[in-house]
Amino acid sequence: MSDLRELYQELILDHSKHPRNKGEIEHANHSAEGYNPLCGDQVTVQLAVNDDNIVTDAAFDGAGCAISTASASLMTEAIKGMSVEKATLLFNAFHSLVTGKEVPPDSPDLDKLEVFAGVVEFPMRVKCASLSWHTFQAAIDGSNDSITTE
Ligand code: ZN
Prior knowledge:
By secondary structure, this protein is an alpha+beta fold. The chain contains four helices and three strands; from the N terminus they run αβββααα.
């Protein structure tokens, strides 16, 4: 178990130091900003969703702690190429994981996102880990008026 924990920490450290998909994407048609006042994490999530409701591209920007940055980095990697519906199910699974609830049985595979299982022991960190996901949901739910792609 301690080896596994070390591996998890390494993955989080790697993604916080070298975040994937950080910056802006062209042709984004959904975006939202998120803020976690408990820690001061700020994140902007940009998504490109096509007519078939597939997330064709995803990126984030902002400043936050290692957990929030790694979570945003791993989230953008995970949802790229996924349907919005599946990504939303993945969010539900992830949220269950970090809040210590049972992950719904029909959820998409959490895969690397399992590394955040440990935050359940640190209630202050749950919001850091879930910030980018809530922001993703806000980007999907919101109107597209913050960004127009013509
Ligand atoms: Zn944080």
